[in-house]
Amino acid sequence: MASPGSGFWPFGAEEGSAAAESPGTARAWCQVAQKFTGGIGNKLCALLYGDAEKPVETGARAAPGAAEARPACTCDKKPCGCQKAEVNYAFLHSTDLLPSCNGEITTMSFLQDVVDILLQYVVKSFDRSTKVIDFHYPNELLQEYNWELADQPQTLEEILLNCRTTLKYAIKTGHPRYFNQLSTGLDMVGLAADWLTSAANTNMFTYEIAPVFVLLEYVTLRKMREMVGWPGGCGDGIFSPGGAISNMYAMLIARFKMFPEVKEKGMAAIPRLVAFTSEHSHFSVKKGAAALGIGTDSVILIRCDERGKMIPSDLERRILEAKQKGFVPFLVSATAGTTVYGAFDPLIAIADICKKYKIWMHVDGAWGGGLLMSRKHKWKLNGVERANSVTWNPHKMMGVPLQCSALLVREEGLMQSCNQMHASYLFQQDKHYDLSYDTGDKALQCGRHVDVFKLWLMWRAKGTTGFEAQIDKCLELAEYLYNKIKNREGYEMVFDGKPQHTNVCFWYIPPSLRSMEDNEERMSRLMKVAPVIKARMMEYGTTMVSYQPLGDKVNFFRMVISNPAATHQDIDFLIDEIERLGQDL
């Protein structure tokens, strides 16, 4: 059992609640608040219970009632080992928790134990002596535990066990040696914000049920548009469930801008549309075309140079070809930070072409948008201010907990016109406040999660300069890795030159292949090296890094760094581990 002394006490009393009505319960809560927050606890209790209900001194005896059932501890030990009233979860179920009558103490005890489980996991996530992953094959996990859903409820004891088991086999994405995806790290302020968001449990469609969150979305999106370079942060935007949906929003709005009748009459009423994006772009552009009925064949892939950047001359050539065939070019999706190479398309040249042919310019900055926070690196997005729309995922380079993706649109009101359906049961026109803050009708979703608060709270905690330092550090670590392996025996770079982003792409060449002639047999054997090393990494649990083929290039490692916890020592460890696991191949 956990005690109030072993973690945080995230509860306050609402007017009319049992806690507000019970002086004993109020004093018990205040004891805990003062123990862990000092003067803030005094202010909190005064705020919640008024001046008449002063917090008692730490260790003072509370009035009979709830405090006797679960006394506050007075020790400084972590974790606390004080004697306390036990709650036997073996005979309790979710129906014994709030809003059950007299469920306050059981609820607080249960949630405290959940918090303890979470805090232990958080601390372990940053401990380099722990595994990144406790890997088991799917059939092993399925056989080892009963994951099936049943008609009868489990006890709270079993529910806590479910929580521990789930985290036991979870990937520690905050671990300093986890490099597998573009989204890594675990920010403490962001985590706290996510907990708060879940506790608030509201929907983003109207101001009346999410007043603060709606205002924070308005403020944050405006700031992001300012950083893109649109005067005064003008325009519109929305937080969506990931970059793929943000990119699809851009396609939807671009199509509506050119052919507004498509909203009512559908694709049959308009000409054959075509979109253009680089051959290294994210697959979501094609997926969006499929979902919108445009078709994947209508997405024309533009050639890239050896660094993965779109070639503007090929873009213009393909636009002219499409027009000659009677197709209507409606969108160019440029990429600021490609998924594999981390390449930045030449946005100024692309903007000139889009202006010349009157085509909507979208910039997929899901991965690279965070560099706008850095004075040292934001030049890589020069020209982004000329885009009609921009995707930017703070849950990637900025380390905001998943999910947090923004679609920014330069023209105000266009998103609303494109998507609104005037649902009268939500968006009544005679409400008593400014209806422009009812943002739900411009979204494709009805139910929309609060994704803004964790970004906003992290931004308040770090400031723009804090994000800048975090991003600059990650890029410096990528350069450190590149410099260590570019001339190191057993490594070959996938492309020449220093990477533009934190993507470092390379082959590890085992000793058995180093003297082989560069032929088909060598490529065939090299193709198997990265998958085997990756599998061994996961089975040992020491680190994780991604690999993939691309075009005519066989499997290579794609190292990406977005985890603020990573250090030079972690990069050194990765190199040593790759060599240890791959030397016998």
Rounded average pLDDT: 89
User: Given the helix and strand composition, which structural class is it?
Assistant: alpha/beta
Bin the helical content.
Answer: 25-40%
The total beta strand count reads 12
What proportion of the residues form beta strands (DSSP E)?
5-15%
Structure explained in plain terms:
- The chain has helices spanning 18-21, 23-37, 39-49, 66-69, 104-125, 138-144, 156-168, 188-200, 211-228, 243-258, 262-265, 284-291, 312-324, 347-357, 414-419, 452-485, 520-526, 529-540, 568-582; strands at residues 178-179, 236-240, 273-278, 299-302, 328-335, 360-365, 389-392, 405-409, 491-493, 504-508, 544-550, 553-559.
- The chain starts with 17 loop residues before the first helix and ends with a helix.
- It has 585 residues and is of the alpha/beta class.
- The strands form two sheets. It has a seven-stranded mixed beta sheet, sandwiched between helices. Strands 1-11-12-10-9 form a five-stranded mixed beta sheet.
- It is built from 19 helices and twelve strands.
- The longest helix has 34 residues, at 452-485.
- Helices cover 40% and strands 11% of the residues.
SSE order and pairing:
Layout: H1 18-21, H2 23-37, H3 39-49, H4 66-69, H5 104-125, H6 138-144, H7 156-168, E1 178-179, H8 188-200, H9 211-228, E2 236-240, H10 243-258, H11 262-265, E3 273-278, H12 284-291, E4 299-302, H13 312-324, E5 328-335, H14 347-357, E6 360-365, E7 389-392, E8 405-409, H15 414-419, H16 452-485, E9 491-493, E10 504-508, H17 520-526, H18 529-540, E11 544-550, E12 553-559, H19 568-582
Parallel strand pairs: 1-11, 3-4, 3-5, 5-6, 6-7
Antiparallel strand pairs: 2-8, 7-8, 9-10, 10-12, 11-12
Helix pairs in contact: 2-3, 5-7, 8-16, 9-16, 10-12, 13-14, 16-19, 18-19
Subunit structure: Homodimer.
Cofactor: pyridoxal 5'-phosphate
Keywords: Cell membrane, Cell projection, Cytoplasm, Cytoplasmic vesicle, Decarboxylase, Golgi apparatus, Lipoprotein, Lyase, Membrane, Neurotransmitter biosynthesis, Palmitate, Phosphoprotein, Pyridoxal phosphate, Synapse
